[in-house]
Amino acid sequence: MLKKISALVLAGVTAVALTSCGKGESGAAAPGGGKTIMGFSQVGAESGWRTANTKSVQEAAKAAGIELKFSDAQQKQENQIKAIRSYIQQKVDVIAFSPVVESGWDTVLKEAKNANIPVILTDRAVDSTDKTLYKTFLGSDFVEEGRKAGKWLTEESKSEAGPVNIVELQGTTGSAPANDRKAGFAEVIGSDPKFKVVASQTGDFTRAKGKEVMEAFLKSTPDIDVLYAHNDDMALGAIEAIEGAGKVPGKDIKIISVDAVKDGMQALADGKISYIVECSPLLGPQLMDLTKKVLAKEEVPARVVTEETTFTQEQAKKVLASRQY
Ligand code: GZL
After folding, report:
1. In 3D, which of 47, 96, 97, 91 has the Cα closest to residue 77?
2. How many CA atoms lie within 13 A of 138 on its CB side?
3. Strand partners for 229
4. 3-class DSSP state for residue 94?
5. Whose CA is closest to atom 3 on ligand 1?
């Protein structure tokens, strides 16, 4: 009899140990019964890039055996903060998110830290000076993406005396990609006075807003030579506006874009876009690898930069069929 009771007690202790192994320091049983649970707050579904990024995260979580609690913030910071607080309440094992804008995160990240829940930044950065508020930041170097765009234009325009009139469709106001892609591009073209950014406004990373703002640029700004769009969706919207104004995109107005999503690469292959700087959304597998290391208390780099390239029209024609997104 005694043997039977001790076996049951042992089994009970083992079960509790197994369920609690899915929760960090606090040892509380993981609601998922032992599986690692990630709370993920996504920016929204504003672009082809975002859709591909969401797919990558969801598929990678499944492949890694990580239970994903996913929320779409519809590009609103307050929705992301609510989602993060909800994940803290649910005592998830780890929180990952792509901050829609750079500022305003310290309070909620301190709440996650106080709850012993590690946070991983993916895609976009925050401007918090307290680097202990998150374990690592996985994503592209947006300043470098802007520099690549500027370097291509500088080379492309080297035989032109100028002025080269540029309009710029910025990403979401206050977001890291908008701030940094603008800065990197300006850093490169700023050394040559022939380049004039004659108009610059946010198109919020969406096709519809990109079209609307480009229509306004075409009405108010004579002699546009170049459009620099911070993402393909805004570039594709601008193409509709340019064609609606009776001009030829890629010829009358050269277009430089960022992302290299399928529709953007098709427009590049068709000659409507002139050059695309790649920004890979396929961050899911690396995010899950980093998550496992963080939960195993292994050292992870403070910054993991995504590897990515650039595409000319000729290169786009060659790779279009094999693109993953
Ligand atoms: C960049 C990402 C940006 C994309 C846009 O990493 O945050 O947001 O460039 C997307 O297409 O909307």
Report:
1. 97
2. 21
3. 169
4. strand
5. 177
78 CA to centre of ligand 1 in angstroms: 19
Per-residue pLDDT of 117-164, as tens digits, reads 999 999 999 999 999 999 999 999 999 999 999 999 999 999 999 999
Q: Which helix (H) or strand (E) holds 124?
A: none
Does some domain include residue 194? yes
Mutate to test the pocket of ligand 1, among 43, 47, 80 (most ligand atoms within 8 A of CB): 47
Give the separation between CA 132 and CA 245, rounded to whole angstroms: 51
Ligand 1 pocket mutation pick from 142, 205, 307 by most atoms within 8 angstroms of CB: 205
pTM of the model: 0.90
Q: Which atom of ligand 1 is nearest to the CA of 206?
A: 12
| Residues 236-252, mean pLDDT to the nearest whole number | 98
d(C-alpha 114, C-alpha 138), whole Å: 23
pLDDT value at residue 33? 57
Ligand 1 residue neighbourhood (C-beta within 6 Å)? 46-47, 49-50, 123-124, 139-140, 177, 205, 231, 233, 258-259, 279
- Domain with 52, as residue range(s), is 27-140+281-307
Q: How many domains does the chain have?
A: 2
Paired tokens of 237: 């919207």
CA–centroid distance, residue 183 to ligand 1 (Å): 16
Q: Are residue 112 and residue 92 in the same domain, yes or no?
A: yes
- Ligand 1: nearest atom to the Cα of 49: 11
**130 & 151 share domain:** no
- d(C-alpha 189, C-alpha 26), whole Å: 52
CA atoms of 87 and 309, how far apart (whole Å): 35
